[in-house]
Amino acid sequence: TDQYVVIGNPIAHSRSPSIHQQFAALTSQSMAYERCLSPLEAFEATLHQLRLQGIRGANVTVPFKLQAAELAHWRDPRVTLAQAANTLVFEPNGQIRAYNTDGLGLVRDIAINAKTHITGQHLLLLGAGGAAAGALAPLIEQQPASIAIANRTQAKAQELVQRHQALAQQWGVPMQALALESVDSHALPRIDIVINATASSLQQASLPIKRLDQLLNPEALVYDMMYGPAAAPFLSWAQQQCPQVHLRDGLGMLVEQAAEAFAIWRGVRPPSADVLQALRQEIS
Ligand code: ATR
């Protein structure tokens, strides 16, 4: 049986084993998928040990995505842009290939599961850390009308925009970086899709954005990359100000990024919508 793991710290609450085990059952793939807790200072040693154990592939989560990108022997262009990897392939010759499926997972969840067009829409991405970086290239490739990236530390948003400038020009997508405090309806077009990629909910902090109702299209999609209770503060804050918006947490993104990883490893696309439905019931 081919062995796979998800590496993180903490890792106990990861849903990835359950998701991949369901994918494997539904596609008749013979594989095992387990959690792997890596010591914070020993990610490289963890990779080495997994290689000795003959592991075929790994998902990587917080806080190791950056190191995973750095340590790989080959990087998908998306990994280079995001400077983060969430999917590793261990080659028989000992080499490690790195991919990032987070952004594609987000795009598939919005476009397919939530049936919301990204093409031609005005996007606002909140945050400029690893989560935001992973999402940006696939969002650009959907050709939205514009993408604004707002971050507490504006310089990080600027850096992210600069790194993606060539890709954005190639797809004809205007991008701008701004500080969270300067997000208002004068600085931006009416936003159709706002995506929270900040860790503010984890710190019980609210975002310093005023007059969300003036900023958003009344029927905008308000998306949080976190799922379940972690997404609730942001989503309910948005709903209080804009009762007609569509709310969506990141559970679908989690399942879809897993489906992309599964397809890379096994060459088979799993029925992700079915697994998302089952997981949604399990959680609520
Ligand atoms: P992740 O991999 O989850 O993106 P990260 O790289 O540490 O984690 O990035 C965290 C993101 O959440 C950043 O955009 C961070 O803003 P800064 O770049 O200014 O640090 C944002 N963030 C964290 N706490 C926040 C808060 N209380 N208010 C607003 N933004 C916050």
UniProtKB/TrEMBL annotation:
Gene Ontology terms for molecular function: NADP binding; shikimate 3-dehydrogenase (NADP+) activity
EC number: 1.1.1.25
Ranges for domain Shikimate dehydrogenase substrate binding N-terminal: 6-88
Cellular component GO terms, alphabetical: cytosol
Limits of the Quinate/shikimate 5-dehydrogenase/glutamyl-tRNA reductase domain: 115-201
Catalytic activity: shikimate + NADP(+) = 3-dehydroshikimate + NADPH + H(+)
Pfam families (alphabetical): SDH_C, Shikimate_DH, Shikimate_dh_N
SUBUNIT field: Homodimer.
Protein family: Belongs to the shikimate dehydrogenase family.
NCBIfam families, sorted: aroE, PRK00258.1-2
Descriptive protein name: Shikimate dehydrogenase (NADP(+))
Organism: Lampropedia aestuarii
Gene (name only): aroE
